[in-house]
Design brief:
With 397 residues, the protein is mainly α. It has helices at residues 2-54, 57-67, 70-95, 100-120, 135-158, 161-169, 171-183, 189-206, 214-240, 245-267, 279-305, 308-329, 336-368, 393-396. Helix 3 packs across helix 12 (308-329), helix 4 runs antiparallel to helix 10 and helix 4 packs across helix 11. The longest helix has 53 residues, at 2-54. The radius of gyration is 33 Å and the shape is globular.
Length: 397
């Protein structure tokens, strides 16, 4: 009897505690479900954020702007340009590969193969939707690139170095005039004066032997226009249509290759198939092609981060630095006039750069400092403004 009574008491005790246990268990399960839901929402937000940053054109553009600003892009382009100048001098001089259009074609084919590998590994940035950029703009950029590159090599072949440098200097006013005609873009008189100083300084520093011939003059004049339009289109498409440098290169490189193929027999001498393609020569050409890809990429980054005019000024800066570097480190003697011209050009570039940096800083300062007004407390429309009570915490806040 006592055993049965104890069992009954135990059963009744469990029965009394059972609702409490069930209630606690339900609260525990709900808390677990709530925690799991919060974790799931956090993971979903993280996945959505990563998708927006890595798998959309806007996110890829933000990543490019974050990690590759104007200073980084222009420094990258400067270093690669100096490297490819030395490499191409070796390829053209020591190796004797005198086929500039075919060398340019090798550069673009190598770039396309590398970008195809990036595409297969999902490393190529996403392109904007096709409806945002008409195919005619992409096609025009690819065609203009081929003519700008091909005609530049042809101009260097048929003109003296001095006349070729004069044609390069003429690209700067052509860009300013073209941007005004196409996009109504104006620049300040201070920038115009700085660009005039830069152009005159580069002319004095580099234009030493000016030999004129009608055929070379026509090629140089024809080259100036596509060279200017090429830089303007690269800069405009990246800054207004969310294109990254690699994504735009991926779309335009096949078009450029298509137009370079008919230019090769017109501008290159015959005998490319009889060239000695041994390991040494092929390795040097391959290194030049890899640097050509980096030059195209860095140039596109610089155009996307700055402007077409700033990119031309960067090219003239490279010319002056190479001239002064040879005088300082290798004891070359370009002449006092060339040295003075290079120094004047560098001073003009410094002023132009400071003017470019001054504008964004003033704009951001205006955005960060909005106009502030002090609150006025009135009791009624008929009463005058009363002084705030400094002992009132609301007025102190």
């Amino acid at each position: 009897m006592n055993g049965k009574a104890d069992a009954a008491a135990a059963g009744s005790g469990v029965g009394v505690l059972e609702p409490l246990l069930d209630r606690g268990a339900r609260k525990f399960i709900k808390r677990k479900d709530s925690d799991a839901g919060d974790a799931g929402r956090a993971l979903e937000e993280l996945r959505s954020s990563l998708h927006n940053e890595l798998c959309t054109a806007e996110g890829a553009k933000r990543q490019q702007q974050r990690f590759c600003g104007p200073v980084v892009a222009m420094t990258f382009n400067f270093m690669v340009a100096v490297g490819i100048i030395l490499t191409n001098k070796s390829v053209m001089g020591k190796i004797g590969f005198n086929f500039p259009i075919f060398l340019t074609l090798i550069h673009y084919c190598t770039a396309w193969v590398l970008m195809a590998i990036f595409k297969a590994l999902s490393l190529l940035p996403v392109s904007p939707p096709s409806k945002t950029t008409p195919f005619s703009s992409i096609f025009a950029l690819g065609a203009v690139m081929s003519f700008a590159t091909g005609l530049a090599n042809a101009s260097l072949k048929h003109n003296s170095v001095g006349f070729y440098q004069m044609a390069k200097i003429a690209v700067t006013p052509t860009i300013v005039l073209s941007e005004f005609m196409l996009f109504k873009k104006r620049i300040s008189s201070e920038k115009v004066l700085a660009l005039v100083v830069v152009s005159l300084g580069v002319a004095v520093a580099t234009v030493t032997d000016v030999e004129f011939n009608v055929h070379g003059f026509c090629i140089a004049v024809i080259w100036i226009i596509p060279s200017a339009i090429n830089k303007i289109l690269w800069s405009n498409l990246q800054q207004q249509s969310n294109w990254t440098a690699l994504a735009l290169m991926w779309k335009t490189t096949p078009i450029t290759i298509f137009f370079l193929l008919p230019l090769m027999p017109l501008l290159d001498p015959p005998g490319v198939l009889s060239f000695n393609w041994d390991l040494r020569n092929s390795s040097a050409i391959l290194i030049s092609a890899l640097l050509g890809f980096l030059l195209q990429w860095s140039g596109a980054l610089a155009l996307g981060a700055t402007s077409a005019t700033s990119h031309v000024v960067l090219g003239q800066f490279k010319t002056c630095v190479i001239l002064l570097g040879g005088y300082i480190f290798f004891h070359s003697d370009p002449g006092s006039a060339s040295i003075c011209g290079a120094v004047a050009a560098l001073c003009g570039m410094s002023v132009y750069t400071s003017l470019n940096l001054k504008g964004p800083l003033e704009t951001s300062g205006k955005k960060r400092l909005p106009k502030q007004t002090l609150p006025v407390s009135t009791k009624s429309l008929g009463e005058q403004t009363s002084e705030p009570d400094v002992h009132n915490p609301a007025n102190i806040a």
